[in-house]
Specification:
The chain is built from two helices and 44 strands. With 629 residues, it is mostly beta strands. It is elongated. Keywords: Signal.
Length: 629
């Protein structure tokens, strides 16, 4: 009888495993192991079979047969007939307390069913103990760690990989020792090898560990890397170990060069723990003299990615105007150390440069400072306040639009007006009069240096056909460039820093700046501002590129997107009713915030170098002159 019973149980077990007998278990029960012994079987029931099911105990797919996940418990009633090897259930029997039914099904070769009979009444009932001890998983099979120490970069980044074949999806810990193996060398740290390596699969097994700062000492050392096994095998020395390395003294970085706009560019960071995500600084020396200390906090995602150091570590420093005198100078960049040690001259230093000073807007006396200037529409007189004292020059008439610029390229601003298609220009210094017909009465004048020759070109934006028309000062005929919509506000400027004015518009409906960059003939799009803002593009950070900026009359706040580092800043200066007048009034190469208040005829200037300044100059009906106008 027992032999025959075992035979039928094998059949039952096979059917239960290979047919869709069991519904999905409740989430709370999927990770439980049902009692593996017979001591917990309720009175009046018998154990008829043991088997494994799918997706339990953290295993995706069939559970190994060595792990018993369920008991088949069948009610032992008078229907049990040993002579025919039939074992039936009584579905009306109450399930004991502490147990629950998890499935019923029809199993052929029971209760008179000699062949499969779909739709027959259930003759198998499976119940589960709710409070049984959990059987621990089988111990892992020991395997040996494999991996390699690929190398040590001069930035202190250690590259390589480690994997336990017995647990291929598990990321391992790697221990590092310097100048000797484990137990002899200096423990340098531990790192989980969890970086993605497409050549090592499955899982993530790459390592990018940065050595501690004390090993940046310009001396030769050896590095040992050990993979810590996931199956409790002894640590394994990774292939390629030991590895020789020499790290430069900290800080690390590079002085990459000086661009055409006169900006010193590069990156630096202190690899000590203090420098982790914290910027250090750069000390600049020109001709042997200290000039400035600048934080290295500009975005450099390439450095963050390649070195594994979070934070921003780039620098971009505009060389001061005093050194833009046409003479040769020598610039040295030294990275500072956050631990208090002496700084280090960055690779790439020293560099020799020769720069010309950039002209300031509305600079009527050639001193590289913008002069407070108004144009009086009633009598066409230009009133200005240069260093030598107030001046008045009659040029223009009622209805004209002031369009000051450097039309002959001598570095001094010339007075000019646009009169319904006629440009009237008075050259400063020589008093030469120029009259050029270019444009139509409804055109908007947009003068600028579109060809990069240092002279202001005549240009207009025609809303009727959304075309920019430019007459280059360097020669040649005019050209047209369709760009923008009729409702756009023209905002020309040198947004890419190539020395040429770029065609650009501000779209009030969506607060968008749309710029056609002359350096590469590509378009940029940035939403910055609202429809009621006044656009005030200018070079506020001194890097030689026009910054997108707006003045919000409702709260008297300036909002500026700095091109030097991509950061946004806002500053409250002015009030509703003021006329915005930004320009470089202190001559430091950076445009200052400025407003003219018609209510009291006063200019309020927030100079980036010389601080706040105010002066009464002009009448309430005067038009402040700024460039671009």
């Amino acid at each position: 009888m027992i032999r025959r019973l075992r035979a039928i149980l094998v059949v039952v077990a096979a059917v239960l495993v290979t047919t869709p007998l069991l519904p999905a278990l409740p989430a709370a029960a999927e990770s439980e192991l049902v009692c593996p012994g017979t001591a917990n079987i309720p009175v009046g029931w018998i154990h008829s079979d043991s088997f494994s099911i799918y997706n339990v105990c953290g295993v995706t797919g069939p559970v190994p047969h060595t792990v018993i996940t369920q008991w088949e418990i069948t009610r032992h009633t008078d229907r049990y007939r040993d002579d025919t090897l039939q074992m039936c259930i009584d579905s009306g029997v109450v399930i004991p307390v502490g147990w629950t039914e998890i499935a019923t099904s029809v199993v052929w070769y029971r209760c008179g069913l000699q062949t499969p009979a779909p739709g027959a009444a259930p003759n198998v009932r499976i119940i589960k103990c709710l409070n049984c001890p959990v059987r621990p998983p089988d111990p892992p099979t020991p395997t040996t760690t494999i991996g390699g120490l690929d190398g040590v970069a001069n930035t202190g980044v250690v590259a390589g990989w480690a994997q336990d074949p017995g647990r291929p999806g598990t990321s391992l810990t790697v221990h590092y020792y310097i100048d000797g193996p484990a137990g002899v060398g200096v423990f340098a740290g531990a790192f989980v090898a969890d970086q993605r390596r497409t050549d090592i699969q499955p899982g993530n097994h790459g390592m990018r560990f940065t050595l501690p700062a004390e090993w940046f000492d310009a001396r030769m050392h050896t590095l040992y890397a050990y993979g810590i096994d996931a199956t409790n095998d002894p640590p394994v020395l990774l292939s390629g170990s030991p590895k020789l390395f020499i790290l430069p003294k900290r800080p690390i970085g590079s002085f990459e060069g000086i661009d055409t706009a006169g900006n010193a560019n590069g990156w630096t960071l202190d690899p000590s723990l203090l420098g982790y995500a914290n910027p250090n600084a750069v000390d600049f020396y020109i001709d042997g003299f200290f000039v400035a200390r600048v934080p290295a906090n500009g975005p450099r995602p390439d450095i963050t990615t390649s070195l594994g150091y979070p934070g921003d570590h780039g620098f971009r420093w505009p060389i001061p105007p005093d050194y833009r005198d046409g003479s040769a100078h020598t610039l040295v960049a030294r990275g500072t150390d956050l631990t208090g040690d002496e700084g280090r001259e960055l690779p790439g230093s020293p560099r020799t440069f020769t720069l010309q000073r950039r002209a300031a807007a509305v600079d009527l006396d050639g001193d590289h400072r913008s002069d407070v200037t108004v144009w009086r529409p009633g009598d066409g007189v230009w009133w200005s306040l240069p260093a030598a004292g107030p001046t008045a020059v009659a040029w223009g008439m009622a209805g004209d639009k002031p369009v000051a610029g450097d039309y002959n390229g001598d570095g001094t601003t010339d007075r000019a007006v646009y009169r319904a298609g006629l440009w009237c220009i008075l050259i400063t210094g020589t008093n030469e009069n120029r009259f050029v017909s270019f444009g139509l009465p409804d055109d908007k004048p947009v003068p600028g240096d579109y060809d990069g020759d240092g002279k202001t070109d005549l240009a207009v934006f025609r809303p009727s056909d959304t075309t920019w028309y430019v007459l280059p000062s360097g020669g040649g005929s005019y050209y047209g460039f369709a760009y923008g919509l009729a409702t756009d506000r023209p905002v020309p400027g040198d947004y890419d820093g190539d020395g040429k004015t770029d065609v650009a518009v501000y779209r009030p409906l969506v607060g968008a700046w749309i710029v056609h960059q002359s350096s590469d003939n590509t378009d940029s799009y940035l939403q910055f501002g609202v429809s009621s803002d006044k656009v005030v593009p200018a070079d506020y950070d001194g890097d030689g590129r026009t910054d997108r900026a707006v003045f919000r009359p409702s709260n008297g706040t300036w909002h500026i997107m700095q091109s030097i580092d991509g950061r946004y800043r806002s500053e409250a200066y002015g009030m509703n009713g003021d006329v915005v007048s930004p320009a470089d009034y202190d001559g430091d190469g950076r445009v200052d915030l400025g407003v003219f208040r018609p209510a009291n005829g006063t200019w309020y200037l927030r100079q980036s170098r010389d601080g706040d300044y105010s002066v009464g100059f002009g009448l309430g009906t005067d038009l402040p002159v700024v460039y671009p106008s």
